[in-house]
Amino acid sequence: MLLAIVLSFFLLDSVNYNPTYWEELSQSQKEDILNDDRIPKIVRSYYYGCMSATDDDNTFALLDVISSPNNKNEEMLYLHLLSQICIHADGALSEVLGAYCIKMVLSDPDYVLAYIIRDESLSTMYESYIGYELAMSEDPDDAYKSFSNSIKSKARLISGNELNTFLAAIFDALMSSR
Q1: Is residue 113 part of a domain?
Q2: More exposed terminus of the chain, fewer Cβ within 10 Å: N or C?
Q3: Enclosing domain of residue 120
Q4: If you write DSSP's letter for every residue of 19-50 in order, what string do you get?
Q5: pTM, to two decimals
């Protein structure tokens, strides 16, 4: 009986998982976050259009920061920025984004996956970048297995079907990148 109660709370949480994302914030909420001293200058510079994402050292420094959020406010902002970079990337930059996508997804799989699966083209982009990154590793099969096990062990609120669909698409992208 106790197990049934515990499981029902878990299932209710997963059904009602409705996180807040950057796009849903008011302009004043966004400004409050951007004006927080903990947000690095490089992040604000990119957000306000003072720098472009290219394949240079500043962009890699930005990607290092935004793929490692330290709190929910950073997570909202950084996921938004990484997704924008993924959407607009081309050439050499697009070839390195997979590592940053992996890092972001593994930082909070439920939050990130709930965000990207809302938009099929964004989900496809993350799947492609991650699949390509795993395909370029020394042992792609082992890299995929490690990524898959890690995300499965961390994801608690996203449905198993959505997670399996995401992982299958990454595997397909990995296989087509070989």
Answers
A1: yes
A2: N
A3: 20-177
A4: ---GGGS-HHHHHHHHTSTTS-HHHHHHHTTS
A5: 0.89
